[in-house]
Amino acid sequence: MRLLLSVLAALAGALPALAAPAAAPLVIADVTVIPVDTDEVLPGRTVLIRDGRIVRIDPAKEARIPKGATVVDGRGKFLVPGFFDAHVHITARAAAKASRDPATAALDLPPGYDQAVMLSFLRAGVTSVANLGGGPVGDGELLRLREEIAAGRTAGPRLYIAKRINGPLAGVTEKDLATAPASTIDAPTIAADGAAAVQAAKAKGYDFIKPYQFLNRQTYAAVVEEAGRQGFVTTGHLPELGCSVCADRAFVFAHPMSNVAHAEELQRYGRETDLAPADIDALADLVKRSGMGVTPTLITMKAIQHMQVEREVMPVAPGWSRYLDPVSRLQWTAPANRYLGQPFRDRDGAHLFSASYDFARVLTRQLWKRGVPLTVGTDASLPGLVYGHSVHQEMIELHEIGLSPVEVLRAASLNGRRLFDPKGDDGAIRPGRRADLVLLGADPLADVRNVETVEGVVAAGLWRSAAELDRLYEEAAR
Q1: Alpha-carbon torsion 318, 322, 323, 326, what sign?
Q2: In the 8-state DSSP scheme, what is residue 433?
Q3: Sorted alphabetically, which InterPro entries does this protein's record hold (predicted)?
Q4: Per-residue pLDDT band at 272 (split at 50, 70, 90)
Q5: Are the C-beta atoms of residues 108 and 330 closer than 8 Å to each other?
Q6: Percent of the chain with pLDDT over 90
């Protein structure tokens, strides 16, 4: 008997594994397609999706529905590429429990907390997000969650995880340079450690590098250059100015990152002038010549301005407050919310914050007019900005400074993919492209605010209706 079992086991090991049954094709029938890579609109189309890819886009009257396909009725609806939030800060459950803030660590978070946060993105039509850095616990959890989503075991947007590389504040403060701590790869102040930090990020599986503003001249250049050698995209803060080892404006634009994470960052580089219109034009020209893109995060500036002027958090639109997670809810209130505190109001330059929002809007318009690639990012969950829905708010901000609706959609989808996945496809609705899609109930080209009318999403080729996403969210958040 043992011999027979051994033979059977050996035979089983020699046989090829049975393939998992193929997922049923997905059909979105008789829908208006807005591909977004051009200005064209394709009414009355039927879209066939198989194995996470768009296979065909046919006139609805000519389309053939495969046997066994899942069919979504697209009549009167609009299909656009999935939205991409190019700047978020996600607090994973494990990171919250390990927080140095006692109130955050004491929160009774449900086991499905991370899943609920991911679903809040999908519910808003956000099928990709770039997380711009946190601590080692949070990053480790998000790297794990990225793999769970990619394998189809967890519902969520595609995650792109940054390694933030920053030096000590003392290393760019003239009076403290002599006593600045010794360089390490965790807080580099020399080029070798900056390059080593990038190499360590590569080994740990990060997706891109976020250079931060306390890197001195030599270390900033080393981080950007090594990131390029390692095939990393770089998006982050511009380095501090004004000390003997700091970068200056000419140096930074001669050693450009791939992308600047806030239009606000460029304001520091405009302070060398009085920010007259001609000076803003000159700054926009520098960005254009450098080849850098920009994630303006105008809604971030608006939210901070609101807190400073009104002394309260900017209200969340009706219907979206249900997606405010417990960690963000705590961090939005005093004393955790530093923007509501007097020290923030008393800091140098705080009185200019309203002007900073105006500056960011004017500069972003000039960048757009020059063809600088713009991406939609929100800095969520900064107080007032809910994961997912804040993308809609930033899209409205961009429309209000002059972008056409299709340009807004492009900034909120294709441009993010082109930045963070330059070797992949850009997500336009075309045969052969990745099927990360949003079905809207109203025309976003007629009114950009219609991006909020999310009827469902296709993420990694799988359809989930708004009702299903709401149900899954409620289950995970309990």
Answers
A1: positive
A2: S
A3: Amidohydro-rel, Metal-dep_hydrolase_composite, Metal_Hydrolase, Metallo-dep_Hydrolase
A4: low
A5: no
A6: 82
Same domain, 414 and 331: yes
- Cβ(45)–Cβ(456) below 8 Å: no
Report residue 135 CA to chain centroid gap.
17
Q: Are strands 83-88 and 26-33 parallel, antiparallel or unpaired?
A: unpaired
Is residue 28 within 8 A of residue 35, CB to CB? The reply is no
Token look-up 């056409």 returns 404
Structural tokens at position 438: 């949003």
Q: Residues 279, 374: one domain?
A: yes
SS3 category, 417: helix
Tokens representing residue 122 in the block: 């999908």
Side chain identity at residue 334, one-letter code = A
Q: Does some domain include residue 11?
A: no
276 pLDDT band (50/70/90 cuts)?
A: confident
- By CB atoms closer than 10 A (0-12, 13-18, 19+), residue 81 is buried
Answer yes or no: are the C-beta atoms of 376 and 395 closer than 8 Å.
Answer: yes
Q: What is the DSSP string of 141-210?
A: HHHHHHHHHHTTSS---EEEEEEEE---GGGG-GGGGGGPPPP-SSS--SHHHHHHHHHHHHHHT-SEEE
The reply to whether 116 falls in a domain is yes
pLDDT surpasses 70 at 4: no
For residue 287, being part of any structural domain is answered with: yes
Q: Strands 42-50 and 26-33, how do they pair?
A: antiparallel
| Domain presence at residue 391 | yes
Q: Are residues 298 and 342 in the same domain?
A: yes
Helix and strand numbers, DSSP H then E, in the chain: 18, 15
Q: Look up the domain containing 300 and give its range.
A: 83-165+258-421
Do 418 and 384 form a contact (C-beta atoms < 8 A)?
Answer: no
Q: Are residues 366 and 400 in the same domain?
A: yes
Regarding whether 87 and 72 lie in a shared domain, the answer is: no
Claim to verify: residue 123 and residue 159 sit in the same structural domain: yes
The predicted-structure confidence for 39-89, as pLDDT tens digits, reads as follows: 999 999 999 999 999 999 999 999 999 999 999 999 999 999 999 999 999
CATH of the domain at 29: 2.30.40.10
- Cα angle 243, 248, 253 (rounded to 5 degrees) comes to 155
Q: Are residues 269 and 395 in the same domain?
A: yes
Question: How would you class 138 by CB atoms within 10 Å of its CB: exposed for 0-12, middle for 13-18, buried for 19 or more?
Answer: buried
**Token reading at 429:** 């609705």
Residue with the two structure tokens 């102040």: 189
Q: Which of 421, 438, 459 is the last residue of a domain?
A: 421
Query: What phi and psi, each to the nearest 5 degrees, are found at residue 470?
Result: -65, -40
**pLDDT tens per residue, range 136-163:** 778 999 999 999 999 999 999 999 999 9
CA distances from 276 to 267, 359, 366, 371 (A): 12, 10, 13, 21
Sequence-ordered alpha helix ranges (H) in 2-78: 2-14
